[in-house]
Amino acid sequence: MPDLRVWPGAPYPLGATWDGEGTNFSIFSENATGVELCLYADAADAAETEKIELVERTDLIWHAYLPDVRPGQLYGYRVHGPYAPAEGHRFNPAKLVLDPYAKAVSGDLRWDDSVFGYTVGHEEADLSSDDRSSAGHVPKCVVVDPSFTWGDDRPPGVPWNRSVIYECHVRGMTMRHPGVPPELRGTYLGMASDPIIDHLLSLGVTAVELLPVHQFVNDRHLVERGLANYWGYNSIAFLAPEARYASGERPGSQVAEFKSMVKAFHRAGIEVILDVVYNHTGEGNHLGPTLSLRGVDNAAYYRLNPDDPRYYFDFTGTGNSLNMRHPRAVQLIFDSLRYWVGDMHVDGFRFDLAPVLARELFEVDRLAAFFDIMQQDPTLSQVKLIAEPWDLGEGGYQVGNFPVGWAEWNGEYRDCVRAFWRGDEGRLPELASRISGSSDLYQAGGRRTYASVNFVTAHDGFPLTDLVSYQQKHNEANGDANADGADDNLSANWGVEGPTDNQSITELRGRMRRNFIATLVFSQGVRMLLGGDELGRTQQGNNNAYCQDNEISWVDWDVGPDDHELLAFTRDVLAIFRENPVFRRRGFFTGRPVRAGTKDVTWLHPLGREMRDEDWADPQQRVVGMLIDGEATDEVDERGRPVSGQTVLLLFNGGEASRRFLVPQPDLPGMWEELVNTARPGRRMVRGQAVNLVGRSLILARLVRERRATARA
């Protein structure tokens, strides 16, 4: 690039910004003494084609404008400053670092000792710097063209109470689907292909929640074992979509392909929610590599121990935590969020280990600046915000404590529903709270039922089929001698582990899968399904498949008869949810009459009477009925008029023995129609005054008035 012109440029916007004529480069560093912009011809190059010293500095932002630089140009930075770990500074200009605001990244991290800021292997190694260049082993940033033909794309705007979230992985969803073209498998375009979207629409999914798609790195210890960081919770560039999920090889093509995916989902009425990891980066602890923030300004971006700044606070178990006390670190997160909404058109976020973002001092602070900024932001306050409400620090379990406007993964729901169907004693009172929206967790703070994102399984742990099939985890393929993964995910007492020809065990497993799906779908709150559960996906007993980018994690679309039945069942119960607004309440049940002689919800004993205090207190009681009146809705039609639903009766038997359950007699002529029975297929009218509720099963019935009942009889 002969006679490269360099103009002063502007401090904003941060990052590399193509304006149609040239590119403005801008990077913040508070403690740097100098910054060099390096241009490259290829992602694998060790030698730059140009090195430009940034001499302009405005408000601690280094910047320049290069009128000759076009989209597709690869670049990185060398940042000068003190290498003084004991003071919190780890500048090393021998290490090429990524722009924190890079909108695309090209090339892979090829692990080599040169990517570390210190000489690996020495005693107290990180206290002295290493002068080998890392440029030939690290990925490069890409100047991108932001233009894209969005047409009439607009957010689907699905109300929270109508949402059905489907948690899935871009690569895992598409790698084994026979209908996805081979060249698109594992990519954004494969995810947006007709076979995938048609499957989601057949279920009634309203939002996909994608596991992390920010550019991330594979851990060195995994690469050395022949494994990979499959889940992607190791971000290294918060504005860049992961390049490995692009089908094209041109640097930066991942941006347009991601946008195409979002546009296709929106056209189908499906929202796109991103699982985002702002609590830490892939640079790890004080012995980690220098890839981006560590070399740009370690003391500004990371939360350091004030008593010994050589070390990092670690609320995540990954070695570092972002510094939520520094305004530029907070700005980076919010600029990233706004970019994904404004430029990439996503509809919401699920925040990994979200309490870390509220740790301004040490304890989780509900009034932290992070929440204040989010609530006041005119763009971000209008998208879906979901917290994983726990981290690994002291006081990090914060289920129920997030502000108004936030939804949360309800870990209490998951644990209670699993315990109830496992047959644990004394779980009935809590079950009633969980399936009716968890008012004990959310109501006092002014939040509504949709603050609770209900789930039974998620990416972290067993998928549904393994949950009901394994009494022990089998993570041997991870290379940690089966010591990783949480034991409390297990579901003992359900029979022989693994495949079996025993008909009763096989039938019980099938029933338990249906129980979990039906309980989830018919509970108040937001429903979240784990991708592949409806197809009987198995991880072969691995409950921590974070490093398995292979058939262990990928969805197998070649399903057998039992799994086809499960798929049909899942579609049926979700159709019932869509048809009846009593399952979509925004407000909590009150237990008060909605019309003469009826309450919005009534809890029933198998003898047909209301549950009493002594019934709830009985630890052996595992059977209950939930009667929801058809007038117990708070939805309105397009003219603002109240919408009525159908009166329904939900019956739960978490015990082993069958129970006779007296059904309430209708106050008007009519009959009960059994819509769902997890112990037997098909719909049927209830002909007597009682039903047989099989052990470990669920029944859903609806009240059918006389005219319809006669027609069906």
List keywords for this structure.
single chain, 713 residues, alpha/beta, TIM Barrel, Immunoglobulin-like, 2 domains, 8-stranded parallel beta barrel, 31 strands, disordered C terminus
Short description:
This protein has 713 residues and is of the alpha/beta class. 21% of the residues lie in helices and 19% in strands.
Number of separate helices = 16
Major beta sheet summary: 8 strands, parallel, barrel
What's the level 1 CATH class of the largest domain?
A: Alpha Beta
Q: Work out the radius of gyration.
A: 27 Å
Structurally, how many domains make up the residues? Answer: 2
Judging by the overall fold, what is the CATH architecture of the largest domain?
Alpha-Beta Barrel
Number of strands: 31
Helix fraction, binned, reads 10-25%
- Low-confidence parts, pLDDT < 50 over ≥5 residues? 708-713
Note the beta-strand portion: 15-25%
Query: What distance separates the N and C termini?
Result: 83 Å
Strand order of the largest sheet: 12-13-16-17-18-19-20-21
What sort of overall outline do the alpha carbons produce when their principal axes are compared? elongated
**CATH topology of the largest domain, anyone?**
TIM Barrel
**Could you tell me the mean pLDDT?**
94
- Tell me the CATH superfamily of the largest domain: Glycosidases
Please identify the structural class as seen in this structure.
Answer: alpha/beta
